Amino acid sequence: MRTVTRNLLLGIGVVLVLLLALGAAPSLLRSGDPYYVSATPVGEVDANETNVTAGPNATAVGGDTLSERTHPFTTAAIADAGANQTGYSEPYWRGPVGIKGTFTHSPFDELAALRQRNPQAADGESVRVARNGTLYRIGVTQDRP
């Protein structure tokens, strides 16, 4: 094998290994500030109101269709919430420089996806989600009691 070809293949291999490391390592890094998704129950969904999660006047995202694979922070926070108690997800460490967010799934991605799913469900920095007959306010916070 020629020296130029060998060096090119080694260079491509090193780049591939670095890209794989960047994809796997950020989830293992626990640096920076922790962020949590919080789910606060704000009331029951009225059985007579049919447009809470569907139609042009929808005011909440349908939480019954959220997958644990695509929204792990949101579903964990809703599962942790009690009748009158705010639920929290596992912490997400953002990282000091912000590079980590490019390579990992974050709570900020989930809230953006929920806002995109139903823009009218946005409530300031949080999003309203209806699941199992309960209306939740979903947001990202750094404080967890």
In short:
By secondary structure, this protein is α+β, with helices and mostly antiparallel strands. It folds into two domains: 1-30; 34-141, no CATH class.
Main sheet specs: 7 strands, mixed
Radius of gyration: 20 Å
Shape: elongated
Number of domains: 2
Please characterize this protein's 3D structure.
The protein contains 4 helices and 7 strands, in the order αββαββααβββ. With 145 residues, the chain is of the alpha+beta class. It has 2 domains: 30 residues; 108 residues, no CATH class. A hairpin with a 2-residue loop joins β5 and β6. It starts with a helix and ends with a strand. The mean pLDDT is 81.
Topology:
Layout: H1 3-24, E1 34-44, E2 61-62, H2 72-80, E3 87-88, E4 92-93, H3 100-103, H4 107-117, E5 122-123, E6 126-131, E7 134-141
Descriptive labels:
2 domains, elongated, alpha+beta, 23% strand, 4 helices
